Amino acid sequence: MSEALKQFIDQGVGREPADIVLKGGQFFDLVTGELVASDIAISGDRIVGTCGDYQGREEIDISDLTVVPGFIDTHLHIESSLVTPHEFDRCVLPLGITTAICDPHEIANVLGTEGIQFFLDSAMETIMDIRVQLSSCVPATHLETSGADLPVERLVPFRHHPKVIGLAEFMNFPGVVHKDPVCLAKLDAFQGGHIDGHAPLLRGKELNGYLATGIRTDHECTSAEEALEKIRKGMHILVREGSVSKDLHALMPIITERLSPYLALCTDDRNPLDIAEQGHLDHMIRTAIAAGVEPLAIYRAASISAARAFGLRDRGLIAPGWRADLVVVDNLENCKAEIVFSAGRRVRDALFAGRNPVEPVGLDSVKAREVKAADFAVPYSEGETSVIGVLPGKIITEHRRYRLPAEGNQTGVDLARDVIKVAVIERHGVNGNHANGFVQGFGLKKGAIASTVGHDSHNVCVVGVSDEDMALAANRLGEIKGGFVVVEDGKITGEIALPVAGLMSLEPYERVRDTLHHLRQAAFALGATLEEPFLQLAFLPLPVIPHLKISDRGLVDVDKFALIG
């Protein structure tokens, strides 16, 4: 027997003082739903004693406070938080998020295996337990130019890394249903392990075929009806509430004590500004309880149910032998973290200072060609023009059609109907492609906004009223090695540099948060009406099929979706 096990036993029995004892409070038993008044004894990285009195080498008074298991974010892309994994760790761990299951899909689409390795190296150093799902869809679509290609042969070598859980969200659900050989090769290689799902609005027998491959989870449900069908068919539903995709309110009817073993929570994703203003998973918990959701149901979804869905059998309950990921909150309703423990370590600034840094990658990944105002011209043609319709709070878009005004021999914007220009410019140095179109819903009355964060292939995306401002914004992105830029009347009024693969900042999250606040104000000065104009812009190039039919001919009903590429 190892010395560590002997110590766990002796401290659990009470033969010797525990390393740490939380005294005077109560804990939330997620099995019975009871609030149990008890000491909690910690030895090393695990809980060794509950439901009794303990002495400890360090004793912490938590009178009038409640202890809950650490929260697990079951699906996110840390890159979309605009900070590195180290800064994400420092940003959200103090809020009680002790485990994050990430898909480095964004950096993988830019850098391939180099991006995945960066995340794995970072995960070995962070205080919170970052687990990695191997990106299944790189490139995400043949409709756009990506910076990398990850066939199954490049994924399998990572399979047994200690931080890898399995295969990340399988977005190409039409490819699965129609037995695309590339899809089947990846699914076959990960049989017996965890395979994450991604199947918006997939229902009926097509859903059955998708699930028959061993896919077990889905974070794309936008209605309780859709979620219930998927639960009946064995899926674990990841309820999502991020900075753009907000599904919590729609799914509250299924967050019940009965269904909670088949639910988990995810953000997919939140930026530092929203985290500072609202919170992370703690925000979801507060919001749900305030709307009438049973505390037992939402706290189960935030921890034990999430852990079981992803095979993390050592965490999610406050009980002897379980990992000491603990959040001491003021009360269940407010869910304000007062003290956090990660694997038995109290979370303090000094704990973060002890981490080893990881060398950033992709610092020269923005290779877009320089553009001119004339490159954004759209030739005029009679009849209606296709327009992408933005839906606030959603990543899906609508295909709309309008007769737009002529400006000489060019098609102009229509500010009265909030129709402005949008362009995507290839930035990986592959082919220099450039596509122009029109979008409705941003609210801009002047200027332009540009970004190198453009899901999923992360080319330059720019929206604007003025061709000259659009060119200035796009070209500035190359000078700062990626990020967001706001231009008004020929002047740059706001920017943030994201040089790590054109996706993440090298600055502390506090500075990123403050810069995002300034950027938001600069966008509002252009007339932007969206709550999150930059994240909405980031999702604009994403080919989305909100109303899908699958037939032997492939995808049909094309008038109900829009894309550019």
Question: What does this 3D model show about the protein?
Answer:
This protein is α/β, with parallel strands linked by helices. The chain has 18 helices and 30 strands. It has an eight-stranded mixed β-sheet with strand order 20-19-24-23-26-25-27-28, with helices on both faces. Strand 29 (about 550) and strand 30 form a beta hairpin. Helix 12 (about 280-290) runs antiparallel to helix 13 (about 295-300). The longest helix is centred in the C-terminal third of the chain and has 17 residues, at about 510-525. The radius of gyration is 24 Å and the shape is globular. The model is unreliable at about 545-565 (pLDDT under 50).
Strand-helix topology:
Layout (H helix, E strand, L loop, with lengths): L2 H11 L4 E6 L2 E3 L6 E3 L2 E4 L2 E4 L6 E6 L4 E4 L1 E6 L8 H8 L4 E6 L2 H7 L1 H11 L5 E6 L17 H4 L8 E7 L2 H5 L3 H9 L4 E4 L6 H8 L5 E2 L5 H9 L3 E5 L7 H4 L11 E4 L5 H6 L3 H10 L4 H8 L1 H6 L16 E4 L7 E6 L2 E2 L2 H5 L31 E6 L6 E6 L3 E2 L2 E2 L7 E7 L8 E7 L7 E4 L8 E5 L2 H13 L3 E6 L2 E7 L11 H17 L7 H7 L9 E3 L2 E3 L9
Parallel strand pairs: 1-6, 2-7, 8-9, 9-10, 10-11, 11-12, 13-14, 14-15, 19-24
Antiparallel strand pairs: 1-4, 2-3, 4-5, 7-16, 16-17, 17-18, 19-20, 21-22, 23-24, 23-26, 25-26, 25-27, 27-28, 29-30
